[in-house]
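queue> holo job accepted (adenosine-5'-diphosphate)
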Amino acid sequence: MSNSARGVLLVVSSPSGAGKTTLCRRLRAEFSNLTFSVSYTTRTPRPGEVDGRDYHFVDTETFQKMVARDEFAEYAMVHENLYGTAVAAIEEALAAGRDVLFDVDYQGGRMLRQRFGDEVVLVFILPPSLAELARRLRARGTDAPEVIERRLEVAREELRHYHEYDYLVMNDHLERAYDALRSIYVAQRHLRPRLEHLARAILDAHGPASS
Ligand code: ADP
Ligand code: 5GP
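queue> job finished
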């Protein structure tokens, strides 16, 4: 991390149904300085999802035009739909001194790490088991049975990428998982390069050091 450290880029990934949307919503609600990176996707909205808040829902042609204009910091095909993170929104948030929260898959996390280096912290949410993941997806009731089956097939593949992450959070108990995610975020905010201007300001206020 450079001396002119910028905000935290917090990436949260998990197999679908492990609880990352629930955990990320809570983090956003608690920390007003944390901007959620609203992804672009070609998937159709689920009941209750709002365009511009949960995702920017676009057609494939619009998405491909954005790819051609190099507007994505990363994009990937996930569950047969395209998902992408716009560069402009990240840069705007960082320029305004804000932190950014990303809900992206392992391909997105990997690309963001390559592009932004150690400004990025990668967190993977683990479900207690694949059986519990299936139960949660069915209980959530937002996806058709065949979509759920497809997501479960992909879950095992996604879980195999846990080793690319800095932190693992087991979501067997929502309060404990939130406490862990929150702690990770707060700790990142306190990394020395992000706060050394505070130490320098104290020293500078007292003139040149005597020893
Ligand atoms: P994701 O964003 O990873 O697909 P969600 O946040 O939508 O997952 O969670 C999937 C479902 O599981 C939701 O109905 C949510 O309320 C529920 N859920 C999340 N965390 C827990 C938990 N610790 N215990 C039981 N149910 C949970
Ligand atoms: P869902 O359709 O359940 O909202 O998301 C499906 C998967 O796509 C999740 O793993 C989610 O993290 C991922 N995803 C959402 N937005 C993006 C994005 O902009 N880029 C990438 N690479 N993955 C994304």
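queue> The longest strand covers residues 72-78.
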